[in-house]
Design goal:
single chain, alpha+beta, Glutamine Phosphoribosylpyrophosphate, subunit 1, domain 1, 4-stranded antiparallel beta sheet, 10 helices, 14 strands, globular, binds 2-acetamido-2-deoxy-beta-D-glucopyranose
Length: 353
């Protein structure tokens, strides 16, 4: 009998005995995150490698990014809204139970992912918003109320005001070039109370100015733990100069991230206002469920958005239950970080559009 055949038989029988392929193999644990958020991945890895659950690891990883204020777009101190305020969007999902907890437009509390976990584990709800989310988080023991602004965010906001509040997220309004208050503008140029014709026709505008190469905007992290259980989490302080009250894709399950124990997980980043209309991570996970490889599933989800919004900027990263990972992007170069047992440290992968 050849060595290859022996090896095959050994692998075959050990797979029966050890349950190889069911979590005890070298495929798990694995941590995958958007962007080169290396410290966040290391923090998640330390947790999952020590035997903690995927949910625990996601919390450790995303919290590390919130504490480090990754790129100024996660945690406190970044992305001021039109009033100069920083607010937090976050989500966590347990792929075993399909339980989700999320907070949106949360004020005065910096711990987004921890607040999301409290919603998931101590309420029957899925999403809490605004000041009520802050009150909940503080009542449940998180620090606050705290000032989420930083010298940098206030400086950014002052410069934006000096620049006539440009760029901003308004369309079909008067004044077009200047600060608010804004009024709806009709298609013929006059202000009126109702919906403008342009709005009804669905005017598609270029948004790339808001999501340049330097606004990485979100950590979305997927973890498969030693037991083979899957969890995902997302944390962001949203879009810079957003209209107060805006909620992006961050706390929307299936959009910024999604996990299913039987399939794998997905994380997304980019122009959340557009991406949340397509639930790209739900799409990725469902495509993988039907047998698509992560690379194809990721590309397919991105191309569905690009067909309708050719100017959108975004990316997804997918990982399946075999530990195979891949990314796809549009409008920018995307990077994601991975740590597995085979790696000495976190590795950063680059995906070209
Ligand atoms: C919050 O912090 C910012 C930046 O340090 C500061 O400019 C602002 O005055 C503070 N706001 C309050 C209410 O203390």
């Amino acid at each position: 009998m050849s060595t290859i055949k022996l090896l095959f038989l050994f692998t075959f029988f050990s797979s029966l005995i050890l349950g190889y392929g069911d979590g005890i193999s070298g495929k798990y644990p694995i941590v995958v995150s958007t962007w080169p958020f290396v410290e966040a991945v290391r923090a998640a890895w330390r947790a999952v490698d020590a035997g903690f659950s995927a949910v625990d690891a996601v919390v450790e990883g995303c919290s590390a990014c919130e504490d480090l204020r990754c790129d100024g777009t996660v945690g406190p101190g970044g992305s001021p809204d039109e009033n100069g305020e920083t607010t937090i969007d976050a989500l966590i999902m347990n792929g075993v139970t399909m339980e989700i907890g999320a907070v949106a437009a949360m004020r005065y509390v910096k711990d987004g992912i921890r607040a999301a976990r409290l919603v998931m584990e101590h309420t029957k709800h899925t999403l809490l918003v605004g000041e009520k989310a802050s009150a909940f988080a503080i009542a449940m023991g998180l620090p606050g109320p705290s000032n989420l602004s930083s010298t940098e965010s206030i400086e950014m906001w002052n410069k934006w005001k000096e620049n006539g509040c440009q760029p901003n997220f308004w369309k079909n309004v008067i004044p077009l070039n200047g600060c608010g208050p804004y009024r709806p503008k009709s298609a013929n140029g006059f202000s009126e109370g109702g919906y403008s014709k342009a709005n009804l026709m669905g005017v598609i505008e270029s948004r790339s100015s808001h999501f340049g190469l330097h606004s990485h905007d979100t950590i979305s992290m997927a973890v498969i733990d030693k037991m083979g259980h899957v969890a995902v989490g997302t944390s962001t302080n949203g879009a810079t100069f957003k209209i107060p009250g805006r909620v992006g894709d961050g706390p929307i399950a299936g959009s910024s991230s999604y996990a299913d124990d039987g399939v794998g997980a997905c994380g997304a980043t980019g122009d959340g206002d557009i991406m949340m209309r397509f639930l790209p991570c739900y799409q990725v996970v469902e495509s993988m469920r039907l047998g698509m490889e992560p690379k194809l599933a990721a590309k397919d989800a991105i191309s569905r958005i690009a067909r309708k919004f050719p100017d959108f900027v975004g990316a997804v990263v997918a990982v399946n239950k075999n530990g195979v990972h891949a990314g796809a992007c549009h409008g920018w170069t995307f990077q994601y970080s991975v740590r597995t047992l085979e790696m000495e440290d976190v590795e950063v992968f680059t995906v070209l559009p």
